Amino acid sequence: MAEDPDTLAVAVAELRPALEAILMVSDEPLDRVRLASVVGHPVEEVDDALAALAEEYTQQGRGFELRNVAGGWRFYSRAEFAAVVEGFVLEGQQARLTQAALETLSVVAYKQPVSRARVSAIRGVNVDGVMRTLLNRGLVEEAGHDEQSGANLYRTTSYFLERIGITSLDELPELAPYLPDMDDLEDELAHAAGLGERAPTNAPEPEAATDNASPHSASSHASPHSGEGTEPDGGTEIT
């Protein structure tokens, strides 16, 4: 008898646990043939196992279910828990950016692509924690490396444009009068490299936001060009 091209010659693992493990990490529905090929079991056995798992989850009252949608199988949260899931998903969106994060985001927006060292030099503080927050929030992304220093460069994302309601960076308001000129910027970069007396502190800004952060703490750091102090938070405050 010819070997089924859609399955392996030898089963990879016990069928039902193997299916659960694969479906748990998949971000898209998987069809029966693909699943059979991965686990090394006949398609008919995979069909029976998937149906049995789906029924078992329902009988046990689990918070998730296994559905066959659009020709593929995938885990979904149950409809009766939609309110809980919605609250969890929207929770992070209720966290507002602090003044520190907004200032850092503004520098990236107007100076991009820009390195962390340059942003730190402009703001006069170490911005590592705030930059990580902006990256995690999808407002900033990596944009290659600086040819001279090799440092990572950063730019704003399309999500940033969406959140502030513009279609391109050309629509950003004129901000040049409020930013340092190139001479001032080069001086700050020299200080950041240790060539002068002043430099942004090496202590990173804390990443995590806290519920009890002082509402005015973001504005309590040193002036943008003082080169002293660190930000009191990682860039978010909870409303």
Automatic annotation (TrEMBL):
<dbReference type="InterPro" id="IPR036388">
    <property type="entry name" value="WH-like_DNA-bd_sf"/>
</dbReference>
<keyword id="KW-0963">Cytoplasm</keyword>
<protein>
    <submittedName>
        <fullName>SMC-Scp complex subunit ScpB</fullName>
    </submittedName>
</protein>
<dbReference type="InterPro" id="IPR005234">
    <property type="entry name" value="ScpB_csome_segregation"/>
</dbReference>
<dbReference type="GO" id="GO:0051301">
    <property type="term" value="P:cell division"/>
</dbReference>
<dbReference type="InterPro" id="IPR036390">
    <property type="entry name" value="WH_DNA-bd_sf"/>
</dbReference>
<keyword id="KW-0132">Cell division</keyword>
<feature type="region of interest" description="Disordered">
    <location>
        <begin position="190"/>
        <end position="239"/>
    </location>
</feature>
<keyword id="KW-0131">Cell cycle</keyword>
<feature type="compositionally biased region" description="Low complexity">
    <location>
        <begin position="199"/>
        <end position="226"/>
    </location>
</feature>
<dbReference type="GO" id="GO:0051304">
    <property type="term" value="P:chromosome separation"/>
</dbReference>
<keyword id="KW-0159">Chromosome partition</keyword>
<dbReference type="Pfam" id="PF04079">
    <property type="entry name" value="SMC_ScpB"/>
</dbReference>
